[in-house]
């Protein structure tokens, strides 16, 4: 399973690299015909991983609630996410996978 977690981490680094030159406005822009934006999608990936690996397993999520329920499936952006919070989300995007690896190794969660 370690290899699968490592693959997820590599993909997340790839995504972070793809958006590194985008402005806050670009990350928050909802394109015509879509219901959400880039930063919502990144946070949705964090939310989904927390839901599957922690909440459904009866564990406590390792991110603040503000990054869970508002980003569930069938939700959409409710506000503009400002620069400081964007940076926090980018950090959580990687840190949550590191934490998952640690928790998997300690048998706190299974994946």
Rounded radius of gyration (Å): 14 Å
Largest sheet: none
Q: What is the H-and-E element order?
A: HHHH
> Structural class of the secondary structure composition?
mainly alpha
Tell me, briefly, the overall form.
globular
* Helical coverage, percent range: 55-70%
Number of helical regions? 4
Strand fraction: under 5%
- Overall domain count: 1
Give the low-confidence spans: none
CATH superfamily: dinb family like domain
CATH topology: Four Helix Bundle (Hemerythrin (Met), subunit A)
| CA(first)-CA(last) distance | 7 Å
Task: Count the E strands.
Answer: 0
CATH architecture: Up-down Bundle
Instruction: Give the class-level CATH name.
Output: Mainly Alpha
Overall mean pLDDT stands at: 94
